[in-house]
Amino acid sequence: MKILLLGGGAREHAIAWALNRSPKVEALFAAPGNPGIARFGKCFSIDPCDPASVLKLVRATGADCVVAGPEAPLVAGVADVLREANVPVFGPGKNGAMLEGSKAFAKLFMQRHRIPTAPFDIVVDMQQAEAALRKRTAPYVVKADGLAAGKGAFLPDTLEEALEICHRLLVEGELKEAGKTLVVEDFLPGTELTILAVTDGKTIRQLPSSQDHKRIFDGDRGPNTGGMGAYCPVPWADEDLLDRIQKQILEPTIRGLESEGIDFCGVIYAGLMIDSQRNCRVLEYNVRLGDPEAQVVLSAFPGNWAEVVEAACEKRLHQISWNRTEKAAVGVVLASGGYPGEFRKGYRILGIEEAEKDEGVLVFQAGTRLDSKGSLVTSGGRVLTVVGLGDTLDAAREKAYGAASKIGFTDVYFRTDISAKACLPPWGTC
Prior knowledge:
430 residues, D-amino Acid Aminotransferase, Chain A, domain 1, 3 domains, Dna Ligase, domain 1, five-stranded parallel sheet, alpha+beta
């Protein structure tokens, strides 16, 4: 197989690493890629959201298959154009991508197919927003309908704050098109759990359960980020709970898509809230691997990722053996100081090679570039994800933090408590 990978973050670096491990992969290309991905194949500076440019690159490289990393190309309809040209794509078309591209679409989809989620209202003006908020009590939940780069979900503690947020979005246009429609929903207590699943539109298979850490500071304090770390598997996500998620959420999702004529191939990300009674409700759908969840899940996944991609594209996922994951993985994001606010770029990154000498350590690049001298420097808020693998979560955590301590750049920042609460399910302890 010759594969073209769309995207250029740490998630895509992890995908490239997983694909490169397979003897099925003859060549790997990426658009736009990053210096880490460039170790596995040639990178091309094109816009992955431009269908014509992607199709032109497919033809130039002779790629047999396209793997979409981020959501934006999928929401832009890149997969539809490629499939019309008979190019297999691991990622849904524009209709399927609406599960992530529109919060309102996703909520109405769940309502139609009786998939458990929080009660909600869809609002387009301040009168509707105030009415929806006054039906509820604090904490309030307000979500922008469209893609907002992780900045579209709000949890205000007071009605006044919630109304102010709605005004900023609906009237002032703070998030532009993404905030012209809002979802106001009930707050769900419990503990969050991420389930990533691969589907060919008929069969759906779960990857190892994981948990993301969104807040910037230890103890889940401070503003939300794109994710400061993750781990897998989640100790309290036992077979009974995973079976419940399969039957109540994943399988109804696939049946619902099929009944609406939406042919879905790729990954469904179910962001779930699990309460003390083990009830499972969907907080959000994504239509691709999570970031930083992908970095730990793919590192721990014992299968052949290229084989999985090929089987999904050929609608024979049921034929693939799916071994239980025996390893645990912990991923720690190294960020630029000041993130998710203002931060400086261009600082030289040292220590990656030293860190990767340790068995069970992987370093995935996100906000990096090569400067004029060929040195690796910072170019984003989330710079690296350092992953440790072990037979237990404790061993994996020790590997990850030991490796992270060997890597340095000016103003580097990372959380010190990734996976520390792994044995704290909503119903007590593991």
